What does this fold into?
Amino acid sequence: MDEIPRIEQTLEAAIERATAKDCPPLLAGAVRHATFPGGARIRPRLCLAVAKACGDDIPDLTDAAASAVELLHCASLIHDDLPCFDDAPIRRGKPSVHVAYGEPCAVLAGDAMIVMAFELIGRQIETALAPKRVADIIRIVAGSVGMPHGIVAGQAWELEPTIGLADYQRAKTGSLFAAATEAGAAAAGMDSRQWWALGECLGEAYQVADDIRDVASTPEEIGKPIGRDAALGRPSAVAQHGLDGAKKRLKKLVDEAMGSIPDCPGKDELRLEIAHQSKRFLPKELLLSAA
It folds into this structure.
């Protein structure tokens, strides 16, 4: 079964529960606006791919873990776009949540989606065959969100007078990718700690690709403003290494990710999937070229 329908169905069910008739309509609209239509769903697809490689014997738990990661990602985009941070007017080719629903509602929508993510995982305690896996997933996902190395810390680095590129990228992007790989392994009953490196490498690779798109793409192509790193004084792989250097760094990270995959029944298939997905990181004309 294609991963996208699994993710979309689980997200839709979670949001249907959360936006029942007694929910404030503006809040319900803002949450749905932030979630649908989605982007490439890279993080939840990665979670499902790892679980599949490890056996995926409780698919409902895997779906919950993957969709929770995506809800947290969408929540982080709401907060990232706020006027107090990037002040970005568009996201995924449409008005940002704070533009469409107002800044107060956007803040609340992001908060609500963070809580919704953990509720989605917690609901699996009622039906999961392995409650310890549920507890492991909650621990993994919580660590990827908070402090000291989660996405909240990543956002907070933007408030500091100086930012180290490695610390910034590890928290802002890498943490949620690592959560996706670890949660996928945990959902399938594998030792999640062995899967951290894969997520860390892919997270940095995605961030490097995003830094490249920020200078070499168009708003229409990526669905958000470009040139924001330079305008806001943010560290980036392009600023540190140059465009060609960033492309070489991206290729190196993808190669490292391939080499970090632990032994599992579906290792070869997972390698092919990661190779395929990594080709979607950049515009076609920049696809690693001869780097």
